[in-house]
Amino acid sequence: MKDAAPTQSGQTIYLKDYTAPGWLVEEVHLTFRLAPEATRVLSRIRFTPNPDADQGQFFLHGEQLKLISASIDGTPVAPDISEEGLTCAVPDGAFTWEAEVEIAPAKNFALEGLYMSSGMYCTQCEAEGFRKITYYPDRPDVMSVFTVRIEGDTPVKLSNGNPVASGEGWAEWHDPWPKPAYLFALVAGDLINHPDRFTTMSGKDVELNIWVRPGDEGKCAFGMEALKKSMKWDEEVYGREYDLDIFNIVAVDDFNMGAMENKGLNIFNSSCVLASPETSTDANFERIEAIIAHEYFHNWTGNRITCRDWFQLCLKEGLTVYRDSQFTSDMRSAPVKRISDVIDLRARQFREDNGPLAHPVRPESFQEINNFYTATVYEKGAEVIGMLKRLVGDEAYSKALDLYFERHDGQACTIEDWLAVFQESTGRDLSQFKRWYSQAGTPRLHVSETWEDGTFTLHFRQETPPTPGQPDKAPQVLPIAVGLIGPNGDEVQETTLLEMTEAEQSFSFSGLGARPVPSILREFSAPVILHRDTDNAERAFLLAHDTDPYNRWEAGRTLAKQALLRMIADGAEADAGYLGALATLLADETLDPAFRALAMALPSEDDLAQTLHESGHVPDPQRIWEKRQEMRSAMAEAMPDLLANLYAAHQVPGEYQPDAGPAAARSLANSALALLSRRDGGDRARAQFAEADNMTQQLAALSCLLSIEDGQTELKAFYDQWHDDRLVMDKWFSLQVAYARPDQMAATTERLANHLDFDMKNPNRFRATFGALTMSPAGFHHASGAGYKLLADWLIKLDPLNPQTTARVCSAFQSWTRYDADRQAMMREALERMAAQPKLSPDTREMVTRILN
Ligand code: PHE
Ligand code: ZN
Questions:
Q1: Which of 63, 112, 163, 361 is the S-S candidate for 129 at Cβ 3.0 to 4.6 Å?
Q2: Which helix or strand (DSSP H or E) is residue 495 part of?
Q3: Rg (CA), the chain
Q4: Ligand of minimum distance to the alpha carbon of 272
Q5: Which residues form the Peptidase M1 alanyl aminopeptidase Ig-like fold domain (predicted)?
C-alpha cells in the first residue's frame, strides 16, 4: 500500500504495512476520445502533498497503458515507467499533472478497466481497474472530485454524477461527491433508456434510468420498481436520502461479477437486472430485486463512506449485504429469507472457512484483491453485523449507524472506525467481539443439558479449528438465542439471548415444572456449527412445535440429514419417521408454501459431503448422489396423494406476478411436481411445459423431464424458442449439465463447450456451463477424473483472456482434501498442471497455490 513501493504481481501485501498516501488529489479532469482499438485518455490532476504523511517518492499506478505525453505544471516530463506504474520527480508543493495515454478497449477481455461488450464501451474499476485507464493513485483512500468529458460517435455517453453539458459528439459529466477511483464509471453506446422519477424525502426530484441494448427495453420495469422501493426503504429504515439529480443503471452482457455500485452510474451484469415473466424465473426476480437494492444501498455504505484500503472490504460489503437482506426480509417473508441465507452460508462460506482458502472476514494479507470478494467477506461479514445488532439491540444499532454516517461521511474508513462508533454509542467493550473480524474458521459449538429440581441448564463449549496461518484460536463472543418448549408443545421460555464469551459456559433456567426441550440458536443467531446429541423423537417434536421458523426448518433438515447419512453409511431404508413428519408438515395449510417448499428440499450433496468429512468419513460423491435419489423416490412413494393435492392446490391462475405470494405457491407446486414426475412418467411436467406462459413454470417442467428422461424434444423446443435470448440460453446450457447423469456429465459439459452458441469470453456463459459442472459433486468428482481434467483444460484456456473469472471458478477445487486418495491425486494433478503454465495469471496462481498448500 505504500506509494513508494508499488506492489509487484505475485507479491504479498499486508494490512500492517499500510501507510497514508503521500499526495492527495484535489480534483481530476478526464477526457475520453473513444475508439475501439485506440482510445485516448487525457487526464489533468491537481495534486497536493498530504499534510499527514511523508511524501516519499511520487508514484502513480498504471498498467497496460501507452503513455503519449506527460507534463507537470505545463512542462513536459519523462517519468520512469514500470509494469505497475510510474515514478517522477515532482515539485515540493501542489502541482498539476497532465498526461495522455492510449488504451485498446476492444482487446480487453479481462473485463477490467475500459472494455467493450456487445459494441458498447463500459468500465469496471473495482478493485484496481482504474490503473488500466490512466495513471493515477489507484487506492481507495485517495478521494477526489471528477469531471469527465466523453468524445465519440455513440448516441449515449454516461459517467458519474450529474450531466453538465453536451453537444454533437461529446458530453460532460461532473460528480460533486469526492470518490475513490474504483467508483469511476463510463458507458457509451447505442442504448435505450427506461425512464422514471423519484421524489426523495426532502422533496428533491431525481431522474432514474435503466439503460439497455435495443431489444431489451421490455425487461426493465421490474428493476425500476425495485430501485424505487430501495430508495424509499433506505429513507425509512436508515434515514438515507439519494444525493444526485440523476441515478443511472446500465445492463452489460459481459461482466465478471453481479453488479457494481459506481457513484450515480451502477453497472449491472445483464443477468442481474433484466427481467420479464417469459424469460426470468421467480428466483431471478427475487435476486434482481436484492442486487438492485444492494448496489443502491452502497451509495451510503461504500460510496459516501468508503474503505481506507482493500483489507477493509467487509466494511462496505458485509454491511451492504446485511442491509440488502433486511430489505428482502421486509419486502418478502423474513423467515424464508433467513433460511435461504443460512443454506447459502453453509454451502459457500462454511466450505471456504473449513478448507485451504479460509481467511478472516478482514484478511491480513493478499496477493490479488480480486480473489477476496468471497463468501467470507460478504456473507460472514453480514453475519457479523447481524450478531452485533442482536447484541446491542435494535435501538442502539440505529443510534450507532446515525453516528457512523454523521462522523464518517466523506471518509475512507476502517473496521476500527466502525467498531469505535458502536463502542462509544453503547458503552460496550467490543475488543473480544472484534475477533470475528480477525479469526478465520467456523466455531464449533457443543451443547449438553442437565435437569435438576426444576432447573434446566445448558452447558456450552466452543472451539474453532486451526485455519491456514492461524493454529490457535481464542474464544469468540457468541450470541445464542434460546427458547424452551414444554412437553405439551407450549413455549415455556420465549426467545432469550445468551451471551457466551468463554470457552465453556453454562446458563440455567429455573422454576420449570417439567423438563423442557430447548430450541437453541434460533434464527441461526451465530454462524457456528452446532453439535448436540439428541434423538429423532426430539427433532420431530421441534419440527412440530418450535415457534421459531428457522429452528423448525432446521429440525426437519437434521432429520433428513440423519436419515440420508444412515442410508449412505449402511444402506438403511429411507426413514419412515422422517417421511411421516415431513408429510404432516407439508399438509399443514397454515404454513407458508415457501417454507414448506424449503422443508421439502433435501440437504445438498455438498452439504452431506461436508458433514461426512466433518465426522471423520471420506465422502463418496457417487453414493451420496444415489442415496439422495433413492430418498426422493421414497418421498414420492410415501405421499403420492398429498403431492398430487399440493400440486393441484398451488397452481396460480391468471397473469404471472413475481411477488412473494404467487412465487411461494409456484415453488411448492414445482417441488411437488419434481417428485410426482418420478411416478407419472412425466405427464404432468410435459403438460406444464406445453402450457407454460412464464419461465418459472417452463424451466421447472423442463428440469423435471431432464431428471427422468433425456428430454430431447423439450430441449430442442426450448432452444428454438429462445436461441436469440442470451440470458435464457445460459439456462439451457446449465440445465443440461446439471441434470446429466454423473458418468455423462463431463462429456455433456464438453459437448456444450464446443457448441456454436458457447463463448468462453462471456463470463455468464462460461459459468452457466462450467459452474453447473462444479456445483454437481457426483459429476464433477466422478471416479474417472474426467470432470477435473475438463475443468483444468478450460481454465487453462480462459486464464490468458479473463484471469478474474478463471480464478473464481478454480475455487471448485478447494475441497479436494476431503476426498479419497485417487480423487485427491487426480485433483492435485489438475491443479499442478495449471500451476505449470508459465504465463498463468497472478490471480489464478494465487488460488492454485493456496488450494495446494
Ligand atoms: N462491489 C460489487 C458489489 O458487491 C462487487 C464487484 C466487485 C463488482 C468487483 C465488480 C468487481 O456490489
Ligand atoms: Zn457490494
A1: 112
A2: strand 491-500
A3: 27
A4: 1
A5: 441-532
List, in sequence order, every residue forming a beta bridge with 13; answer none if it has no partner.
366
- The count of C-alpha atoms lying within 13 angstroms of the C-alpha of 833, restricted to the half-sphere facing its C-beta, is 17
SS (H, E, C) 701-729: HHHHHHHHCCCHHHHHHHHHHHCCCHHHH
End-to-end CA distance of the chain: 26
d(CA 416, CA 237): 24
Q: In this predicted model, what pLDDT tens digit does every residue of 307-341 receive, in sequence order?
A: 999 999 999 999 999 999 999 999 999 999 999 99
Closest CA to 852 of 805, 802, 804, 817: 817
Cβ–Cβ under 8 Å, residues 437 and 415: yes
Catalytic residue among 128, 286, 295, 523: 295
Among residues 264, 265, 268, which one has the least CA distance to residue 216? 268
pTM of the model: 0.98
Q: Which amino acid is at 105?
A: P
Query: Probe ligand 1: pick from 112, 123, 124, 126, max atoms within 8 Å of CB?
Result: 126
- What is d(CA 571, CA 569) in angstroms, rounded to the nearest whole number? 6
Spatial separation of the C-alpha atoms in residues 459 and 360, rounded to whole Å: 28
Which grid coordinates belong to 70? 506527460
How many angstroms does the Cα of residue 293 sit away from the middle of ligand 2?
A: 10
Q: How confident is the model at residue 9 (pLDDT cuts 50, 70, 90)?
A: low
Ligand 1: does its nearest atom lie under 6 Å from the Cβ of 124?
yes
Query: Cα torsion for 256, 262, 266, 267, to the nearest 10°?
Result: -30
The set of cell numbers assigned to 222 is 421490474
Cβ–Cβ < 8 Å for 116, 133: no
C-alpha 438 – ligand 1 centre gap (Å): 22
- The secondary structure element, H or E, covering residue 227 is helix 221-238
Closest CA to 187 of 216, 219, 152: 152
For residues 719 and 731, give the distance between their C-alpha atoms in angstroms, rounded to a whole number: 10
Of 341, 386, 339, 343, whose CA–CA distance to 361 is shortest? 386
Strand 412-413, strand 306-307: pairing = parallel
Contacts of 88 (CB under 8 A, 6+ apart): 58, 60, 70, 72, 77, 79, 80
**Which tens digits make up the pLDDT trace of 643-686?**
999 999 999 999 999 999 999 999 999 999 999 999 999 999 99
Rounded to an integer, what distance in angstroms lies between the CA atom of residue 484 and that of residue 556? 18
Q: Does ligand 1 have an atom closer than 6 angstroms to the CB of 378?
A: no
DSSP assignment of 147-174 equals EEEEESS-SEEEESSEEEEEETTEEEEE
- C-alpha distances (whole Å) from 140 to each of 126, 127, 148, 304, 312 are 10, 9, 19, 12, 10
Residue count (the chain): 853
- Contact between residue 315 and residue 422 where contact means Cβ atoms under 8 Å apart: no
Give per-residue burial for 723-742: e unless 16+ CB within 10 Å, then b.
eebbbbbbbbbbbbbbbbeb
CA 118 / ligand 2 centre spacing (Å)? 25
Residue 742 is given by DSSP the state: G
